[in-house]
Each structure stands twice: as C-alpha cells, then as structure tokens.
Amino acid sequence: MGREALAEAMIPVIGRLYRENNVVTSIHGRSLINKSTMNILKAHRFARRMSKDELLLEETAPLLNSLAELELGAAAIDIARLNQKFKEEGNGATLEEFLRSELADIVGKRGADDRTSTDVVLYGFGRIGRLLARLLIEKAGGGHGLRLRAIVVRRGSDNDLLKRASLLRRDSVHGSFEGTIRVDEEANTITANGVRIQVIYSNDPATIDYTAYGIKDALVVDNTGRWRDAEGLSQHLQSKGVARVLLTAPGKGELKNIVHGINHGTIEDTDKIVSAASCTTNAITPVLKALNDKFGVVHGHVETVHSFTNDQNLIDNFHKGDRRGRSAALNMVITETGAAKAVAKALPELLGKLTGSSIRVPTPDVSLAILNLSLENGTTKDEVNNYLREMSLHSDLRKQIDYIDSPEVVSTDFVGSRRAGIVDGLATVSTDKNLVVYVWYDNEFGYSCQVIRVMEEMAGVNPPAYPAKESAKALAAIAV
Q1: Beta strands 189-192 and 195-201: pairing type?
Q2: pLDDT grade for 478, boundaries at 50, 70 and 90
Q3: Using CA atoms, how far apart are residues 413 and 446, in angstroms rounded to an integer?
Q4: What tens digit of pLDDT does each residue of 327-375 get?
Q5: Cis omega (within 30 of 0) on the bond before 467?
Q6: What element of type H or E holds 296?
Q7: Catalytically annotated residues
Q8: CA dist 273 to 31, 285, 315, 460, Å?
Q9: 3-state secondary structure at position 186
Q10: Does the structure show a pLDDT above 90 at 31?
Q11: 224 backbone dihedrals φ, ψ, rounded to 5°
C-alpha cells in the first residue's frame, strides 16, 4: 500500500479513537485530530526533520490499528515517541504485547474519563480571547475537561453579536474557523461546532450572575489587560458562579506568573488568581532554563523583535507611551519590555542576570527573541543545537520548545505554532562562553496554547499522556 493510501486509512482510525475513546493522537506534539491525508504525511515528514530518523507510515499505521483494538480510556498518545520506544525497548515483544504493557492503566476502559468538567468564561474577546475560544472548541469533543460556557464583552453596536461571531469565523492571520458557527440573537448565543457559548454584555466584572446561565465554579480568563493586580482582578470573584481567575498578561504585585513547563507545579488550590505571564516570557523562559541547566547562564541580554499589537496606533496619533504613538504599520519602534525581568518570577535562579529591550516591527504576528548570553561553561554551536533539538523531542519541555534548522524559514512559517518558542538552529552563534540563540514564537497562538495548558493545570483536567517515560536512549541523548 502506498504512503498516501496508508495515511488516508489512518484518518477514520484517528477519528474513532477520539470519538469513542477520548484518545488524542499526535506526532511529536502535533495533533492528528481532524487532519487531512496530506497533513498526516507532513506530520511524518516533520518527524524526520526533528529526530533525523524516518517515521514510517508502515510502522505508525499498524500501531494505530492496534491502539483501536485495545478499548482504551481517555489519554493523549504520541505515536511517534511510542513507536520509537517500541523499537528501542520492545525486547522481542509483539506490538500488541508492548502496547498492553505500556498502556496498562487505560487498556479495556473504553472511553472512561476520570476528569471532571470545569466551566470557562472568557472575559474579553480580542486576539487572545478568540484564539482561546478556538482551542477550547477544538478540545470539546470528549465532553470532559474545560467547557467554554460564556464570553463577556461590552456591547459595541446594535449588531454586536453578529460581529463577534464573524470575528470568530474569519481571522486575517490565522485563517477561517474550521467548522460551523450559528448565532441565536434572541438567546444571545454563538454555537460553534456544537459548543453553545453565552454572550454576556457587561461593563462591571463584579456584578454578573453567571449562575443564571447555569454556570458554576467557573474559571474566568481575563483577556482585557485592564486589571493586572490582585485587587483589580478580585472583582471577578465577587460575581456569582466564579471560583478562580486567570490573567492573560503579566501580573503585578505578588501574583504568581506561571510559565507552563517551568513553574506550573507551584499552582495550589488556594490560588484564586493566577497570571499566565506574557507571550515573550513564555517563549524565552523554557529555552533559558534548558541552557542554564546545561551550560550555566552568567548574564545575558534579550532583544525581542516583536510584531505590532493593538495598543499601538495604526497611523501617527497621541499615545501616552513613548514612541508608540507613531504608525505601527510604517515604523520599527524601539520600546521597553519587562519580559527579561519577568523570567525570574518563573525561574528564580536567573534573578538579576538578564536585561531586555524590544523593537516593534510592521508584521501582524510571529516575533523573534534574540538571547545573547554569557555562559559558565564553554560550548559549540553543534553541541547547543543537538542539545536543544533533543530537549524539543524528549524532555519535559517538549510542549514548550520546538527546533528547526531550515535555511529558508521566515516569520510567517511559524503562524499557528503550538509551541511557546522555536529555536532556529542555523542562526545559533557560539564562541566558547558567548552564545547567541534565536527563538521564533507565535506571540498570539503559541501563547494561547500555553494559556490553555495553565487552565488545564488550574482545573486539574489533564488527561494521562503516553508514553509516560522516554526511552533510555532518548534520556541518554539529553544527558550527553
């Protein structure tokens, strides 16, 4: 059977695992749910670029078929990593025997999902709010975990509801919504792929009765950026039906700034208000941790080349911030960033070791962080790149760090990346103890994926992930 035919045959198996067993399959973290034949082929091709080993459909197709026969419970399964572990540690066992052993905790449980459901309210429906909505709708298939119940906005016009739905349906950067969207103007609801979202109009976060809409113990995600300290954000907790609050911006004061993959383990049940930090902080902190763990960071400077954002002016006009009043579409604009200092809130060992600045540039999405570091231990470009590639594949930071070494990639190639940051290996510069690393990041979508991970952590709704442990060979590669 040809490669195209194998990939085509995998589609209904992937769909059945998802619908009947709540199993999300992926290749090195890239979901296979609702993907076309060509996208499945591309995912296999991507695996070769990442690991330098061919991922054969002749191996993954029977692996998927075997998974479908095991009546699995809910899980997230990376078939590339599972296949690699089978080849390295199968020890003569058949594929079925290996899978039954590796997935013993969920074999025979047919869709069983021990996770509870958590109601989610998006307070604000701008760039991040709408992307979070897309991600939440995408994850709604199993009916467990995070449930998008409502969005809260200020009414902008008489046809506000239709305009909100249109902005969800069409996006100039991220493309059209994959699915169907219906609007009920009488009920003030938007239904997207079967997910019914109540649209609530309010100017006051403290006076909304969410229980009137059947919402209880909700996680409110504040996307407005209007309130960034505990006092301001605590207004949400005064509304009926709210249990916790997550801010999608750097928090001020004593708020915990969480970068998933780094310090999400510090979230406690008693934390009623948490910040998901900034897009830049999420992009650079995992890479900095990896480099600090391996080589030691003495000090460094972070320069971000950042796409313009809504707080800048389209054409020259008054702005309270320095330089930000000048046209975002025509200029490169030097501005400040707190990302370098914010790293220390998630990674205290780098406190006082980093400085940072930013240049806003005339692109709508995808930014670039340049890490100029002085190291305790000398290294080479190849050593750094091989290490970061392995970290992107086999470490606990693989959901955050991606790696690429193509000589042709540019910023638009990273639109829609689900990783917090992508290391550009060909741009790495190393001269003994001086190191420069370039990290691309989709400052909208990649950051939104990190926010979702923090939400899942706060709600305690992460499905079990397999393989639970890396192969011995993979772990050895990271340690070298």
Answers
A1: antiparallel
A2: low
A3: 13
A4: 999 999 999 888 888 999 999 999 999 999 999 999 999 999 999 999 9
A5: yes
A6: none
A7: 279
A8: 30, 21, 36, 15
A9: coil
A10: no
A11: -80, -30
Which amino acid appears at position 279 of this protein?
C
CB-based contacts of 43-46 (< 8 A; 24+ apart in sequence): 44/7
Contact 49, 104 (CB under 8 A): no
Q: Confidence band (pLDDT; 50, 70, 90) for 140?
A: confident
Report DSSP letters for 231-247, one per residue. Answer: HHHTTGGGSBTEEEEEE
* Residue recorded with tokens 């916790």: 244
CA atoms in the 13 A half-sphere facing the CB of 463: 26
Which residue pairs, CB below 8 angstroms and at least 24 apart, start in 230-239? 230/254, 230/255, 230/273, 233/273, 234/272, 234/273, 235/204, 235/205, 235/206, 236/123, 236/205, 236/206, 237/272, 237/273, 238/205, 238/206, 238/207, 239/205, 239/206, 239/207, 239/208, 239/209, 239/210
Domains observed in the chain: 3-111 (no CATH), 117-249 (3.40.50.720), 280-443 (3.30.360.10)
Residue 46 burial (CB < 10 Å; 0-12/13-18/19+)?
middle
Position 382 scores a pLDDT of 97
- Hey, which residues does 304 pair with through a beta bridge? 358, 369
pLDDT tens-digit readout, 241-294? 999 999 999 999 989 999 999 999 999 999 999 999 999 999 999 999 999 999
Cα–Cα distances in Å, from 124 out to 204, 435, 470? 12, 40, 40
Rounded to whole angstroms, how far apart are CA atoms 429 and 190?
A: 49
| 12 pLDDT higher than 60 | yes
Mean pLDDT of all residues in 67-86:
92
Q: What is the mean pLDDT of the chain?
A: 92
